[in-house]
Amino acid sequence: xxxxxxxxxxxxGSVAKAIKENTQHSVFGSDIxxxxxxxxxxxxxIDEELTPERLGECEVVILALYxxxxxxxxxDNGARIQKGALVVDCxxxxxxxxDRAREIAxxxxxxxxxxxxxxGIERSGFDFSNGAMFRRASMILTPYGDTDIxxxxxxxxxxxxxxxxxxxxxxPEEHDRIISYTSQLAHVLSNAYIKSPTAPYHSGLSAGSxxxxxxxxxxxxxxxxxxxxxxxxxxxxxxxxxxxxxxxYSRALKENDADGLRRLLEDGVMMKALCxxxxxxxx
Length: 283
Known about the structure:
By secondary structure, the chain is an alpha/beta fold. The protein is built from eleven helices and eight strands.
């Protein structure tokens, strides 16, 4: 089977490598940076560069671009995609992309299903891509209610074949609401936490907690700005709610309310246990 990967950065490069390492599919890749395409071919992450002619031969197309770029690429190239081909994006927000891609797919006769691989690192670019990145990870798919079940099964089979351990199905709206908490808020918090004037003095006085809290502070500002704004309402809700919860801890300390602080900490411990149990149940 012939597969196209558009965008050979961290995610796209890793997808291309995972396909090559786990299947017999041919992979054609493209990137706006010519040297990246050459490195991808040299390292055998792709078989050949993607051309308009080869695009028309591909049965699966993976879009590993920023949301606006993904939509723009579909508008520019939708007519070249093979009829009936499966197109899946890897963007971190889904409603913005899916609403627009759904119309383009209907106009051009291919199948579009939103996707979001739940794996990554705090670095970006092809040089950090890894074919093992998705091993045992969850791949979120966000089909609309009228998506053909055969297309969904086709997408599930494809992503499991390249190394994903689990397929999670959500609507685009559910995805964006939950991801604003599980991913986007975590990046905001980490980025804000490292700005403390105390941070430069952490050496010798920090360990795992500091590393965990600051890991994703090393983010891609351009990409995350776009993701945050395309999901701004959900993210604002989560940021404001977190600010209110933090204020409760500050208030307890200011008022010398040891019992109140203990209750807040106990509530957090209990919620963590509930989340861990829920994860074990769905694993």
